Amino acid sequence: MYMRYFSRLFSAMAGPRPVVFSGPSGAGKSTLLKKLIKEYDSVFGFSVSHTTRNPRPGEENGKDYHYVTREVMQAGINNGKFVEYAEFSGNLYGTSKAAVQDVQAKNLICLLDIDMQGVRNIKKTDLNPIYISIQPPSMAVLEKRLRDRKTETEESIQKRLKTAKAEMEFSKEPGVFDAVIVNDVLDDAYDHLKKSLLEEINKVKKTSESS
Ligand SMILES: Nc1ncnc2c1ncn2[C@@H]1O[C@H](COP(=O)(O)OP(=O)(O)OP(=O)(O)O)[C@@H](O)[C@H]1O
Ligand SMILES: Nc1nc2c(ncn2[C@@H]2O[C@H](COP(=O)(O)O)[C@@H](O)[C@H]2O)c(=O)[nH]1
């Protein structure tokens, strides 16, 4: 009982509650998350994950992801460096403890972009985030967005669409997500997102004003 009390106290001291974004690949998680950081750069910080996938054109090492080999990633996993990790579409992805701590040390709300396996695993930790599911309006729209993004091979698109069905079902499980946002019209989805996080945004703003 005392252990649980102290670990909760410690996570409260570590800074504001993180926010987990999850949902099918192509639903618009990064798009919404980047808008949030752009509008509130003194409130939110991004948890930079590690991945074994190759960078896409325009992506930057250390900003979008830490791009590593499977050997390096596996060694980090074995050494307990990750809060969570998962295999997704043939590659490893993971949130390092350092990635979360870097953001929390700045007293910012830490934003995590993770798949449904990551959500299940984060739920076993003391992180205590707010869980937001970003969903596409339909499978057809999702497929179009993935194709139009022009970042995936046909094989990768097929793998992502197959996983998307499970991610869409997962969002309907009671009690998993604090908010489920359908990203149809971007501005509407963004407004919904901001409303869902308003209380936390105001808390951080108040803290930074008084310090
Ligand atoms: N509301 C929207 N309307 C139209 N296009 C959108 C909308 N939201 C995002 N997009 C576009 O859809 C594509 C997928 O969005 P994004 O990359 O943000 O998805 P994601 O969920 O982060 O995907 P992944 O999990 O693969 O990283 C992008 O090209 C983006 O510009
Ligand atoms: N469990 C984790 N999932 C992650 C992490 N970082 C990203 N992701 C998820 O992977 C897919 C694919 O991402 P992409 O950039 O290759 O399109 C997407 O659903 C992300 O949410 C992580 O650290 N852990």
UniProtKB/TrEMBL annotation:
UniProt keyword annotation of Amino-acid biosynthesis present: no
Broadest EC class assigned to this enzyme: transferase
Organism whose genome encodes this protein: Channa striata
UniProt protein name: Guanylate kinase
Chief site of localization: cytoplasm
GO CC terms, sorted: cytosol; photoreceptor inner segment
Keywords, in A-Z order: ATP-binding, Cytoplasm, Kinase, Nucleotide-binding, Transferase
Phylogenetic classification of the source organism: Eukaryota, Metazoa, Chordata, Craniata, Vertebrata
The family this protein is said to belong to: Belongs to the guanylate kinase family.
